[in-house]
Design goal:
By secondary structure, the protein is an alpha+beta fold. The protein is 32% helix and 24% strand. Strand 3 (47-56) and strand 4 form a beta hairpin.
């Protein structure tokens, strides 16, 4: 009962596999996509990023969130530093800040903790810390996850200077 960050930290600590995928209880991970992504992976990458879908439960409108990274290729450390991390600090994080559309290497995730004191931005902070440890990133165009929104959520809107606040 310690909250989402506490649960994720406990899950990371207990994990035994090579990779970790996060999912919220009310959302859906497309298992067939997960298998396809893992089967197609040629390199031993640190992070796999996939597109995902959002469904508004009030209107049933479904939107695909494209992470905006060239897909089906391995991106190296210089790309992570010059593109991904720069986009974080400019607030251009569509599909990047969440943990739901990523496959993490357990070896790296076990070095990082979700900040259990935060009520928002914990995914963003975890991802920034994780990206600082990444050397290879692979992006796929497949949709991995269905994020179910109730239509009233406001916490996923961009907040000016939140990147700076999260690093403090």
């Amino acid at each position: 009962n310690g909250g989402v960050s506490s649960a994720r930290n406990a899950g990371i600590a207990e994990s035994r596999g090579k990779y970790i995928v996060f999912a919220d209880v009310d959302d859906i991970v497309y298992v067939d996509t997960l298998y396809r992504i893992m089967d197609s992976q040629v390199e031993d990458v640190d992070l796999i990023i996939a597109n995902y879908e959002e469904i508004n439960l009030l209107t049933q409108e479904k939107t695909t969130i494209d992470v905006g990274i060239e897909t089906n290729r391995v991106h190296e450390r210089s790309f992570i530093e010059k593109d991904i991390l720069q986009r974080y600090f400019k607030g251009q994080v569509q599909g990047l800040a969440t943990v739901c559309n990523k496959i993490y290497k357990a070896e790296i995730a076990k070095k990082i903790q979700f900040d259990e004191k935060r009520s928002h931005g914990e995914d963003w902070k975890f991802n920034i810390e994780y990206l600082k440890e990444c050397t290879l990133l692979y992006a796929v165009s497949d949709v991995l996850y269905l994020y179910r929104k109730d239509g009233n959520q406001t916490y996923n809107k961009y907040r000016k200077n939140i990147g700076y606040c999260l690093l403090v």
